[in-house]
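Translate sequence into structure tokens.
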Amino acid sequence: MIKNYLLLVALLISTVTFGQVLVEDFDYGTTAGDLTAVSGGAWVQHSGSTGPVAYVAAPASLTMAGYPSSGIGGHATYSGTSQDVNRAFTGISSGTVYGSALINLSAVGTGNYFMHFNSGGFRARVGAQDDGSGNVLFGIGASSSTLTYGTTPYSLNTTYLLVFSYEIATGVSNLYVLSAVTPTEPATPEATNTGSTGTTISAIAFRQSSNIPAVAIDGVRIATNWNEIMNNSSVPSLSIVTPADASVFDPGTSNVDVTFTTQNIDLMIAGNQVNVTVDANPTDADTTSPYSVTTMDGGMYNVTVELLENNMVVDTKMVSFSVAAITQVTNITDLRAGTIGEYYELTGQAFISYIVTEGTRNQKYIQDGAAGILIDDVAGTLSAPLNIGDGIIGLQGQLSQFGGVLQFVPTANIPGAATTGNTITPIDVTVSDLLTNGETYESRLIRLIDATFDAGDVGGMFADNTNYNVTVVGGTDMTVCRVSFGDEDIIGSVIPSTHVNIIGLGGEFNGTRQVLPRYASDIEDALSTEEFGTTSFSMYPNPSNGSTVTISSASNNAKDVKVYSIIGRQVINTTITNTLDVSGLQSGVYVVQITENGKSATKKLVIK
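Result follows.
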């Protein structure tokens, strides 16, 4: 995926700084909208896909007399539980980082943080809570989400200037709440907190979550001392706007634009200019923004940007970024053994077992002969039409994880299905199997056999985003049946009281193993679908490394046996009494369907 960063005129206006690391006045014109869009990419989403942070169009600035960023442009506002955004700046790795913002709260809840510094970890987390009397207490956290709150009550619908800081060497974060500009740093902060030390700070972030206040925010300033928060400077300087330091771009990125701004200097005067050096390449003198770095060979790139006044260097900024390499793997087992955050190409064919049609994450479950994985495609990168049963080849993406579930985030589109109409046969799994070997079954289509729902749930109706405990028949092993697909017909169907098999995707949430049924038909009456049960016959040896397998039952009558590969291809169809010839099967996992006297059962067979 090629990512180009363009510096828009509005962005130039909003990023003008005077010796500070960053000044954000939210001066993006007279059209309101999603902040990430109207800012031209200066603000980027890093979490959540709905409920965007909004830009309230100019003229709508928050004001405070004497504050340099007062009364300019519009402002930002948010109060929800989805999108989080950040704006990057040149990293600060020593001393103290100061941030400030004009804020006005119209409502406040039980308390949570809504703004923070960011880089290798969240620092100086600024939050607010109700004091129990309808007033506001402001607080700060360091590297923990637990905040220390001040004791001074502040009013809703009133503009305050918050100044927050993080001392890198000591981990101390302080918060000041000002009703008027103060030229020097007060001796006593409103609240203080201490956490992790040594974190380089390179972004300011707005956070949405439960219990955050309804906030209007404006005039964000980042600096390395109190004076530069409260005053403008006339010193010539430059700022690198994009990319953020240590950014990693997708494999195949062909160029990256380094955008920068200059302050307090006239570049039309001879001897005033910007020079850019990439790695050990000769300096490109007298350049303009954006400066395009060609990245066809991938790897790491170190960019130095120098500002010259009268042919003398007066400011230097550096940024490093890389283009990720991609590792080829032939199957999902090898993909799952990869490293979180790294990029891979799945060269073997994988089959789509389910497509999640609700929500905005464009998720798809895929599996091959031995493993499965969940595709999480928020960006909609896979735009070619795909259906359940399609086989796909050449999928590229980044390995990630959420709630313990391994995910694959696509970074390139594919032409479409390599094959269509493939049948995915569920693997028979007991509750004990799922609890013991859950990683093996994660994101694969399974049939959980011999289970019952809790007595307190039976007779009710399945609801979306709800967990139901299921227990092995005749035992104590228990796992979770989670209903996650809210637009399918399982919602509103009756929870049975009978002995059931549950077809679904193997799942997990923070260590708790789950089965995720898709349709009402995925909840099977075990007495009708497996009438003489897997305990009524034996199949051995299993696993097998020989040429035959013995299948016996109480009656030992003739048995019709069908064997399917894990993707549903029939590989054996025969009638036996006891002995099944498996000499023609390759190593792998198979599903064996046995029918005797009109009654059927299925069982998993492993060939070594």
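Note: DSSP finds seven helices and 45 strands in the chain.
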